[in-house]
Amino acid sequence: MHSGRLDLQVVAAPAAFAAALPPAGAARGVRGADWMTELAADQRRFATPLPETGPGVDLGAVCAVLERRLPDERVVTYGSGNATLWGQRYLSHNVPHSLVGPRNGAMGLAVPAAVAASLAFPARQAVAICGDGDFMMNPQELSAAFAHGSAPLVIVADNGIYGTIAQHQRAQYPGRPSGTAATNPDFAAGIRSFGGHGEYVERTGDFGDALERALASGLPALIHLRTDPGTMPPPADNAPDTHNAERTAR
Questions:
Q1: 191, 198 contact by CB (below 8 A)
Q2: Cβ distance 222 to 154 under 8 Å?
Q3: Which residues, 6+ apart, have CB-to-CB distance to 180 below 8 Å?
């Protein structure tokens, strides 16, 4: 995966680069259109969420609702952490300037990036996808949205832990959690104290209505999702026979 302009990373003159390229037929390989069709089907399967069996809000189902309900020209912003992987996996990007994320995995970008996107593109819906730890890095940046009249939407997946660090601890130091627990406030009440729209959701089935109310409010909005601390990133494979087995093993 490259980062930035490709022409700044290819150390070759244009003529020499073009001459070194393989013929078009060879570049596509000898497997033909069937191979490409299979790859496309694999991608669709990989990007289609399957139901989770754990307690709390199912982030895959949340992403499915967001994918259906948000306009194509949305701008989605991410910070860092396991919660963001759900949106990156299951939300599509169909227009330019539709994704903002940290280059080096830094936490805390989702909220200020969504505020900035809502100011830069006032006709488009800016949506921040973040975990509770990521959100708590820069929640004060929402004040800029109120000050300047923009209306980003913030989705906070609250599992009460620093999930990525906890995941590494479970793998390398099982039974020895250290410094990863978080005690969180009611984030929805926090944005209401600004004068915005806040929703607290504990059940997956309540998310759709909460999203409709948040979008219809015309205000900076936040949906606080209570999620299962045992659910980390989405499964590596979306095959039904491995999905919930993998979750049980976590």
A1: yes
A2: yes
A3: 161, 162, 165, 166, 169
